[in-house]
Amino acid sequence: MKKFTAIIAAAVREGFSDVHMTGGHPMVYRKNGRIQAEDSVRWTPQEVDTLVRKILTPNQLRKLAREWSSDLALSVHGVRLRLNVFNTTRGLSLAIRLLPGTIPSIEKLNLHPSLESIAGMKAGLVLVCGATGSGKSTTIAAIIGEINRSRSTHIVTLEDPIEYRYLSKMSFIEQRELGTHVPTFEKGLLDVLRENPDVIVVGELREPEVMRLTLNAAESGHLVIASLHATNAEDAVYRLCNSFHVEAQEEIRNKIASAMQWIVIQQLIFREDLGFRIPVLSILRGTQAVKGLIRENKIFQIESAIQMGKADGMFTMERYLRDFIGTKKKFVPPSENFRPSPEISQDAIYISPLIDLDGGMPKPRRPIPAHEAKPAVFQGQHAEYGLEGHVHSLDEKATVDELISQLENLRKVKK
Known about the structure:
Rossmann fold, 3 domains, seven-stranded mixed sheet, six-stranded antiparallel sheet
């Protein structure tokens, strides 16, 4: 741990955004978007194993053993880290992203000030898109920070993992982490509508059911902010639609058109004159014209709508570079945002003993082929039917009502 914490301290001092550690190889880091190696720092595979045992919780270690990778976030010397531990030909490897302890504002992230208007929205879907490492999570955190400073709301986040820990100010913020506080994003989205939220944050849209539930939440009068891997606005809408069967895509397009308010595409580019990377955005706004294109399945025309939507606050990346970046006088260096600082939230992390983390996690089951299917058998564990210690075969061809009747009869026999 001493070696690890020393590396993190040096990474902050030198302005590294990412650190990569793997057995038998020089440490690798990313600075200003460029990968470099540090030959003087090496880890043996056994040292990496020991480090992983130190920093992962028992539940995370079990997940690593079962799935061969694990995501987590933790703080080291006041620096918030996001880690992915995964299996490689060299054994375990760690990909570490350095995060600020204090959430940067939209202005300090060198983002367009129009993003601050998202904080005043009462309902709809806001998508923040881009490649891995483009700063999507930090942009979403800045938007949530703006809401927290400006109005009284109940914000519930579903994250994998929790990166920035929020301190409630004007808003009341509750954070749930996948695998620690909620078994799946689907379960979290089903729960959240019963938790009286105003704002819902979904860490990443990957599975069709998560996308569907997210769209439903945005349609039902909540502000939903989510991230999605997409390279442009057209790609984002296509990804949402194409995640569903063809027969469901018209319904999904209508849901997107009804709920969509913003699609922000983000890239980071290195500026030689500044010596650091800055975000470049493409912004699509949910105007009636754009919603009509989506409903009519004219998604290929979205880029043209952005080009013609300057008056509505839309930007292509070229226009953004010219009209915003090209006229901006002052840029805040990332080192100012990512410098070591105590976490904004000092709430103790507590796991209730009433929660069974192992029992609550769904385990994948092998589908049973039809030729292997057997009649239903109830044994000792089905004490709720009063059948402990007995084995009873039920008619596999019976209807549901007939099965219920058989169970009732078995209960009477037991009595």
